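Lay summary. Proteins are chains of building blocks that fold into shapes, and those shapes determine what they do. In this project we predict the shape from the chain. Here is one chain we studied, written as its sequence of building blocks.
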Amino acid sequence: MRLLARLAVLMCSFALVGCATVLDEDGALAVAPFRIQPNGQIVVETFVDGRGPFDFAIDTAASISVISDSTRAEHNFALLPGKKIAIQGLLSSGRFPLVDIDKFEIGQEILVNPRVASLPSETDTFRGIDGLLGVDLLQRYAIGFSARENVVRLYAPELVSGRSYAGWRVI
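And here is the predicted shape, written in a compact code that computers can read:
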């Protein structure tokens, strides 16, 4: 009985402080479907300001998340007036406008006020996708992929230790 009471207090504490909800026994904060593009990009369903789903590729080489100009214009995501950011990329470099986005949703995880740039759509980077999830957002998570279930799982980094990777295949 005492254990049950402690568990109830602990659960209420998490609810009161707004702690992230654990979806299942493995501790994932969010689970979202993914697919692999013919060019190898891993694409995750992402909602932007409640609209979507949009196809965003996971890009660990991108320092900032981006949305293509065509997707931004088609869905009327406004630019932040006078706000630009310098981006150095493999395909292009320059100063690009920031987009006024309140939230990204990946599965059940909500990322509030993400810093997102709008890049020209005319490159091969955006073929078949709407944007890129960069390290600015991805660094918040340990990410697991299940090829069997075709889902990506986002974990709090502190939940994943080095021993958790025993038996995992390195790619």
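What the prediction tells us: The first strand starts at residue 30 and ends at 36.
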